[in-house]
Write a structure and sequence with these properties.
- This protein is an alpha+beta fold and about 130 residues long.
- It has one domain.
- Helices cover about 40% and strands about 25% of the residues.
- The protein contains 1 helix and 4 strands; from the N terminus they run H-E-E-E-E.
- The protein has a 4-stranded antiparallel sheet with strand order 1-2-3-4, covered by helices on one side.
- Strand 2 and strand 3 form a beta hairpin.
- The protein is rod-shaped.
Amino acid sequence: MKKGRGFTLLEIVIAILILTVALLGLASLTSMIIKGNASNKTLTIATTLAKDKLEELRSLSLPAATIPASHSGTDYWGANLDAATSTNAYFTRTWSATGTDPVTINVTVTWPTNRSVVLKTMRARD
């Protein structure tokens, strides 16, 4: 009797099972990558908001004795960097300046996942 060539049904079922497990793992990995990209986008936007305000505050004049009111405050931003109010904001940005000389400038951006970006710098008076 001639020995048959080809695969048995058991070998085919095992191969399909291994392929299925590999494809499910790739699908799960893809989902995690997409979520990570969204999180990184949010972090990048928050960092950009903080950096922009920090650069703005560093460029303002600091007179000899007092810190101007413009060196502290809060504003609100939507998820797509559109202006928002406190009730519909995604990002909340706060800033303050303290100290005498040098002045410490703090900028904090928070968003609903209880995360925040804090940037600080020091600057001498004019």
